[in-house]
Amino acid sequence: MIWTDGQGREWHIEAGPELITLKAGDQILHIERGVWERDVHLSCVGRDLIARFYGEHVEVGFLVPQEQADEFLSRAKLSRPGDAVDLPIAAPLPQPQRKDLLWPKVTHSSVWALICSAFAFIPLFGLLFGMAALVLIVVFHRRARQAAALAHARTMCRAALILTIGGIGISLLAMFCFVTEAGPAEAQAYTAPAQGMGSYGTIAAAIVVVLVSLSIHECGHAISAWWCGDDLARSLGRVTLNPFAHIDLFGTIILPLILATSGAPVFGYAKPVPVRLTHLSRYRRAHILISLAGPGTNLFLSAVALALLLLMGCLLVLLAPHAVVIGFSSLFSQVVITGIAGGQLLSAVALVLKLVFMINLFLAFFNLIPIPPLDGSWVLEHLFPDTLGRFYAVIRPFGFILFLLMFWAGLIRYLLFPALWLILFGYEVVSACTGL
């Protein structure tokens, strides 16, 4: 059978009880029966058939006349959509058993409670964030129904409650340290490099932090797409923190190695999360939320890492005032803690937290740069569809080349100025409250 899609392309259709194959030139789409419920959508207009087929990188739709529709349904052993009684030659499509909900619901109050709880650790001002998070948690439990679909929202509220209590405790502890003006001993010079992790240890820790941060970033995209109504990423195993599910062979491994060995600035990318816009309700708003979910998870991780750094500084002030701390509040130096038992282990933990804070903050602002194919371009495209949306539609095929030119010209660093400012602000908070 030969069908013509909405763009005028001819597709050769081969239908059978277990497999549907679509071919158009070099483009081939195989859909096995086990995923027909997800990737094959049939509806009727009179006696004609509207057929839509979805693949990982292609979506195609047809308006099929009655004769060809009957032949297709006969070969695939399917019933005509809307028929009260199955056709004699057809068998109904089996419905797979689902043990969990396809599209869980997440309320606005649970999301905002989690966001506010992440900033409850900030001295003094964090108390306002903590109180706002507690109010939102109470509002959620008073208004939300005890439905199974809200299980994810309840989990988010429980996490927000734990973070809020911990953040308020860190905030009060930091204010106490600030008022008492206590602090560990100051070092006159960097005299103990052997206590640090060493350059190779720092590089290894940075690589691990980058891989984990990229995995959490892509997992945030996949979870938000699932929550918004498209479970394609989830069916492909992308709702996971396993880095191997998100690693792109070229973008994550080969390209950074080539750039590093050639002496050029190093960057890379993970495997993009596929999203089917046709499965999203209010797709512009949903795609904006999906695009912001990745940078949002990086900002969340950065805030948690800074909170733990502040907690470590407060504990050093109170429990080990004679400890010597070198490089704690400096941007790129190693962290060395001496004069205390377990100083080497504490140095390694502090350095990892410092890397998590810096790397995730840079990843968040880097992905918000409005240049295709970064997340910020999708946000602006859907916010201004008639102006910037048309512009991005024209340049998106060449977006990666444009990004490379701006990267090598050094223009990207100026767009990352807010991230650098926040990093310096974070270290100022730690230094002001703990004297580190």
Please provide a written account of the structure.
With 436 residues, the chain is an alpha+beta fold. Among the domains are: 2-76, PH-domain like; 186-363, no CATH class. It has 15 helices and 9 strands. It has helices at 36-39, 66-76, 108-117, 125-143, 151-180, 198-227, 232-235, 249-262, 283-319, 343-367, 375-383, 388-395, 399-408, 412-415, 417-434; strands at residues 2-4, 10-15, 19-24, 27-32, 40-45, 48-54, 59-64, 324-326, 336-338. Strands 1-2-3-4 form a 4-stranded antiparallel beta sheet. Strands 5-6-7 form a 3-stranded antiparallel beta sheet. A two-stranded antiparallel sheet has the order 8-9. β6 (48-54) and β7 form a beta hairpin. It starts with a strand and ends with a helix. Residues 83-102 and 188-196 have low confidence and may be disordered.
